[in-house]
């Protein structure tokens, strides 16, 4: 199986960033939990663990939702290791993995639709999702982003961090060519594209929730991920670099030049 070309995958990786913002907007508007940014969820769980020492032994609904998101995100990231069996950078894996993300998103849409609950919380203390079906939807959404992040990381490009935008902001501000605004700087401009795609996804997700509800928005996300999966089929192959075999011929000298070399030089060339 052939690997996809990392540099030719930038558009689809930017679409991954878009989907991060799109999915996160849905969960945050409903329960104030990020499906793709697990730093906040981990800190929230740390606060919940510390609460009994203050005399409060209640495990609140937001804490349970944060735990659900964290565990299922880890499951999705571990699922991304499946690609190691077929090739983590192969076209077949990126198509299949993105298709699985679409299936997770579709499952989340069905769960929200069957739950009958809304998609906008009145405040942090009153989340819109409280039933078991909505917990399942949250799990599917988080698993889809965990799988997405694990897959994107293997390509090792500027777009690899489709989830960790805090790090992206730090790297952008530390870029030595940040202020070179009159010319293209790939290390800087790719980071800007990553952040911009995520912001656009969050904006579109929020607008869609208001217009068609969380179930319809997740249905739209399913279609978008299906298109991204198809897009991987058209990414060019990565061309493997061919290096000359080490030895006598790697000197690239004419016969008369070779005759002028001493034996020690020739034998050292053979060894290397």
Give a brief description.
This protein is mainly α and 272 residues long. The protein has 10 helices and no strands.
- Estimate the global geometry from the Cα principal axes: globular
Query: What count of domains describes the coordinates?
Result: 2
Radius of gyration: 24 Å
Which second-level CATH architecture of the largest domain applies? Up-down Bundle
Helix content: 55-70%
User: What fold name stands as the CATH topology of the largest domain?
Assistant: Growth Hormone, Chain: A
Ends apart, CA distance between termini: 32 Å
Please write the string of helix (H) and strand (E) elements. Answer: HHHHHHHHHH
Largest sheet features: none
Structural summary, described in words:
The protein has helices at 10-31, 38-50, 61-79, 83-86, 91-115, 132-153, 165-174, 186-231, 255-259, 263-271. The protein is globular, with a radius of gyration of 24 Å. Helix content is 64%, strand content 0%. It is an all-alpha fold and 272 residues long. Helix 5 (91-115) crosses helix 8 and helix 7 (165-174) runs antiparallel to helix 8 (186-231). It folds into two domains: 6-234, Growth Hormone, Chain: A (Up-down Bundle), CATH 1.20.1250; 244-272, no CATH class. Keywords: Membrane, Transmembrane, Transmembrane helix. The chain crosses the membrane at residues 12-34, 64-80, 92-116, 128-147, 192-209, 215-235.
């Amino acid at each position: 199986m052939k690997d996809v070309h990392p540099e030719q995958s930038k558009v689809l990786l930017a679409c991954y960033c878009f989907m991060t913002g799109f999915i996160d907007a849905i969960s945050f508007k409903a329960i104030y939990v990020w499906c793709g940014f697990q730093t906040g969820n981990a800190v929230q769980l740390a606060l919940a663990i510390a609460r009994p020492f203050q005399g409060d032994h209640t495990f609140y609904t937001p804490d349970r939702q944060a735990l659900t998101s964290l565990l299922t995100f880890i499951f999705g990231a571990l699922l991304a290791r499946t690609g190691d069996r077929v090739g983590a950078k192969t076209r077949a894996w990126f198509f299949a993995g993105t298709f699985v993300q679409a299936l997770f998103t579709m499952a989340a849409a069905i769960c929200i639709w069957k739950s009958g609950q809304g998609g906008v919380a009145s405040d942090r203390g009153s989340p819109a999702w409280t039933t078991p079906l909505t917990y399942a939807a949250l799990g599917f959404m988080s698993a889809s982003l965990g799988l997405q992040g694990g897959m994107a990381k293997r390509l090792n490009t500027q777009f690899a961090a489709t989830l960790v935008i805090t790090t992206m902001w730090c790297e952008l501000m530390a870029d030595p060519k940040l202020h070179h605004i009159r010319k293209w700087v790939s290390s800087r401009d790719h980071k800007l594209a990553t952040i911009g795609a995520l912001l656009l996804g969050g904006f579109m997700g929020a607008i869609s929730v208001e217009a068609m509800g969380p179930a319809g928005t997740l249905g739209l996300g399913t279609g978008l991920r299906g298109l991204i999966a198809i897009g991987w089929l058209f990414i060019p192959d990565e061309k493997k670099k061919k290096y000359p075999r080490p030895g006598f011929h790697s000197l690239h000298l004419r016969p008369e030049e070779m005759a002028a070399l001493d034996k020690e030089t020739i034998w050292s060339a053979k060894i290397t």
